[in-house]
């Protein structure tokens, strides 16, 4: 009999008899940071540290450039009303919109809205890449089974400093215990003054340039579920499909070495 087996056998006997014994204490909860780190490795996040990602989402073309802490996100599309070519650029220096290559002055509310929408698309497209940002707070909140598969649940919130305008947002992520992939997420959102929640199921995973990309099925519910209980609602068939979120023409390239 191995020492490991013997120790666990003795602990079981003592606990069953309601005795206290050193070394037989309740197992500590998994570390949220370690779970996130494993997911980043499984998704190939290191390949985004100095790289360029391009993709199309709903007829809008996006380009994401990361070089350490420096970044430049852009999107281009044709305005349905005017037929003019619109280009939005978000970088460490701020946000700028141009139409037919002519810069456009925007009021603060419009600039804030466009900044948030561009940043949100990039955030979701590259998840779980941003879950190690300085402002991120990670908390392990339990384990569960979804469709017979084991998952860790991690709640993510943000510090006020460095958390951006949406620092009050809260997310819950479901990470597979063996594959370490991020297969589900739930989050709160606010739009036009109204708050709501969403649950996303990852589908169509594929690797491009060493990075795992996923599409999502977007769900909602008329019931007021806590974010961490969306896995139960999903399995109970209590969610309503809102949309499909599909990234098309995904490309990944490395920044040229200087």
Descriptive overview:
The chain has 258 residues and is α+β, with helices and mostly antiparallel strands. Helices cover 19% and strands 45% of the residues. It has one domain (32-254): outer membrane lipoprotein receptor (LolB), chain A (Clam), CATH 2.50.20. The protein has helices spanning 3-16, 32-42, 108-126, 230-235, and strands at residues 50-57, 60-67, 70-78, 85-91, 94-99, 102-104, 136-146, 149-158, 171-176, 182-191, 194-208, 211-220, 240-245, 248-254. The chain has a 7-stranded antiparallel sheet with strand order 6-5-4-3-2-1-14, with helices on one face. Strands 7-8-9-10-11-12-13 form a 7-stranded antiparallel sheet. The longest helix has 19 residues, at 108-126. The radius of gyration is 22 Å and the shape is globular. Residues 1-25 have low confidence and may be disordered.
């Amino acid at each position: 009999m191995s020492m490991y087996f013997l120790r666990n056998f003795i602990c079981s006997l003592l606990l069953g008899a309601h005795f206290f014994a050193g070394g037989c204490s309740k197992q500590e909860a998994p570390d949220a940071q370690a779970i996130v780190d494993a997911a980043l490795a499984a998704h190939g996040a290191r390949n985004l540290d100095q790289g360029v990602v391009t993709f199309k989402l709903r007829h809008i073309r996006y380009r994401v450039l990361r070089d350490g802490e420096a970044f430049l996100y852009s999107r281009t599309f044709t305005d349905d009303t005017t037929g003019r070519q619109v280009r939005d650029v978000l970088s460490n220096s701020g946000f700028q919109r141009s139409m037919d290559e002519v810069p456009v002055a925007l009021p603060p509310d419009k600039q804030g809205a466009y900044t948030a929408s561009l940043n949100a698309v990039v955030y979701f497209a590259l998840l779980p890449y941003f879950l190690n940002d300085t402002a991120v707070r990670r908390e392990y909140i339990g384990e569960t089974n979804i469709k017979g598969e084991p998952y860790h649940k991690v709640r993510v919130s943000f510090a006020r400093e460095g958390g951006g305008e949406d620092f009050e947002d809260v997310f819950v992520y479901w990470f597979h215990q063996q594959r370490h992939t991020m297969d589900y997420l739930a989050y709160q959102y606010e739009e036009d003054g109204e708050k709501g929640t969403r649950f996303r199921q990852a589908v169509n995973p594929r690797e491009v340039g060493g990075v795992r990309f996923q599409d999502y099925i977007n769900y909602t519910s008329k019931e007021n579920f806590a974010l961490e209980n969306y896995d139960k609602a999903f399995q109970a068939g209590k969610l309503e499909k809102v949309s499909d979120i599909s990234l098309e023409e995904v490309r990944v390239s490395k920044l040229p070495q200087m």
